[in-house]
């Protein structure tokens, strides 16, 4: 395998010159989150979508595969309040997740 292995952050174990999964067609965005102990965890953005005229992003922890939901407010990512979170999560799971 080449030095380009997983450089795109796609998580696939392959050489990006030969794999054909399409991951090279998009940029990989990563956000740094801080856990309760002050450790910084770099989480790739795994999805982005619009709901009720707002943009949301999902980030996934590479350590335990937890997924975090954020609302994009300009350049800032904000954790939605519980009611908004529930509406957005229901929409995402019911309408956007492949079944």
Largest sheet: 5 strands, antiparallel
Content-based structural category: alpha+beta
Percent of sequence in beta strands? 25-35%
Strand order of the largest sheet: 1-2-3-4-5
In whole angstroms, the N-to-C terminal distance is: 33 Å
Proportion of residues in helical segments: 10-25%
* Overall mean pLDDT: 81
Total count of helical runs of at least 4 residues: 1
- Count all strands and give the number: 5
The helix-strand sequence is EEEEEH
- Silhouette: globular
> What's the Cα radius of gyration?
15 Å
- Regions with pLDDT < 50 over 5+ consecutive residues? 1-9
Features:
five-stranded antiparallel β-sheet, globular, 99 residues, disordered N terminus, alpha+beta
What report would you give on this structure?
By secondary structure, this protein is an alpha+beta fold. It contains 1 helix and 5 strands. The chain has a 5-stranded antiparallel β-sheet with strand order 1-2-3-4-5. The longest helix is centred in the last third of the chain and has 15 residues. The radius of gyration is 15 Å and the shape is globular. The chain starts with 29 loop residues before the first strand and ends with a helix. The N terminus is likely disordered.
Brief write-up:
15% of the residues lie in helices and 34% in strands.
């Amino acid at each position: 395998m080449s030095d380009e292995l997983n450089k795109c952050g796609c998580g696939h174990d392959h050489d990006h010159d030969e794999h054909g999964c399409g991951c090279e067609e998009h940029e990989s965005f990563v956000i740094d989150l801080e856990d309760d102990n002050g450790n910084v965890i770099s989480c790739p953005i795994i999805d982005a979508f619009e709901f009720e005229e707002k943009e949301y992003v999902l980030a996934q922890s590479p350590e335990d595969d937890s997924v975090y939901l954020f609302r994009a407010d300009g350049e800032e990512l904000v954790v939605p309040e519980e009611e908004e979170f529930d509406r957005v999560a229901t929409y995402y799971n019911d309408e956007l997740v492949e079944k």
